[in-house]
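Hey team,

Filing this mostly as a record. A colleague (T.K.) asked me to run one chain through the structure pipeline before their review meeting, and I want the input and output archived in the tracker in case anyone asks later how it was produced. No errors, nothing strange. Just documentation.

Input sequence:
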Amino acid sequence: MSTDSTTPTARTERPESALDRFFEITRRGSTVGAEVRGGLVTFVAMAYIVILNPIILSSGTDVTGVPLDFAQVAATTALTAGAMTVLFGLVARLPFAFAAGLGINSFLAVAVVGQVTWAEAMGLVVINGLLIVLLAVTGLRRLIFDAVPMALKTAITVGIGLFIAFIGFVDSGFVTATGANSPPVGLGAAGSIATVPTLLFVLTLLLAAVLIARKVKGAILIALVSGTVAAVVVEAIWNLGPKIGADGQVANPGGWGLSVPELPSTLVSWPDLNLVGQISFGSFDRIGILAATMLVFTLLFTNFFDAMGTFTGLSREAGLADERGNFPRLRSALVVEGIGAVAGGLTSSSSNTVFIESGAGIGEGAKTGLANLVTGGLFLLAMFFTPLTTIVPTEIAAAALVIVGALMMAQIRHVDLTDLSALVPVFLTVTVMPLTYSIANGIGAGFVSWVVIRSLSGKAKQISPLLWVVAAGFVIYFARGPIEALLAG
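Output structure:
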């Protein structure tokens, strides 16, 4: 397929301006207004990363006992997200925004920096990104993408939808962990919706759903703005405060999650970008070639397949994928995604990748890279207005994620569930993602089970040889703990 091929939603009207022709706005059935709204909604849905990424990365001290500075990580998080989102919008011309990947930043803070320094950890992220770029440039990443059966691609879309929704439910406090009790998760606080922030999430979710059902333009944005205004008023009256105390523990169960919806005393702050360029490749000397290689392997698999799954889900949701799941400028998109990992390492903000929250903007009507210019521009501004990004509480933004998850789940209608050899792999792909909180895990479960079940059902000839290789790689990925222990011994 040509990287500039038309899409299923293409129109024949002649674009009216250079901007329209460049981004193919009319051809894709969109408008400038829809792109601007979509870009704004995506930013609102993603703005939490400017706060959450520093929380995760600054919580881990490296092997020398040195943590990353919160304010510095916040600044580079916004910088990298903004720059990569704009770059992707201009090169791939798709409405997929970028930011620090949550799976990889957690992996770095929990499992990597206990062995190496932060600079060395970011060096590993850069190596991971360079490998992804190499795979994309050589076409191997595209071959792997094409080798995935359509049923699995659709299952990935649906699984990501459930994953997005689950993130929304958790962020809102609607779903909470129950500790050692069974089941592992439950409703709200002790089985009830007992907090005001969670109640506002429910009201915002219902408002968005009603507006979408009534086909109101800007439905998600209207709901988010309305929910935020209500949250600001509620906080001004009742002064609920934050849920998490200064020690990082839950001190106020009825409070707000990551951010308190109140006007900050200071709107503007100068970004501290001293973390840019702070990388080292000394991890191979510090922990040995085999151990460092295993860390790169884990980063590569997580980055590679998280992005592939997200691309698949978002392109289908935007109506930009063809019958094989391919979308316009696929190779360019894969190359830029690899550059995002490199950029994240170079700025110490962790690997930047396409964000599933882009689906919120797509749900608002975004179909082109013009939306990315809006989202990316707002991230760049957020470097100077970091206090302002905290006004929208995660409980309100979470409503958009649940709505988008519901919309993406509708894609399951394209899968033939009467084929029992495909049913279990599809089911595993869809369910493992949200249950393990990992897109890569869901894809891996689907790939491995597809190869095993289909081959033993007499359909081995229908399986691409490349899919066998990838499935074998996932077997190693799932067993990486014992393998690392064996290598260490």
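Quick notes for T.K.: Residues 27-488 form one domain. The longest strand covers residues 98-100.
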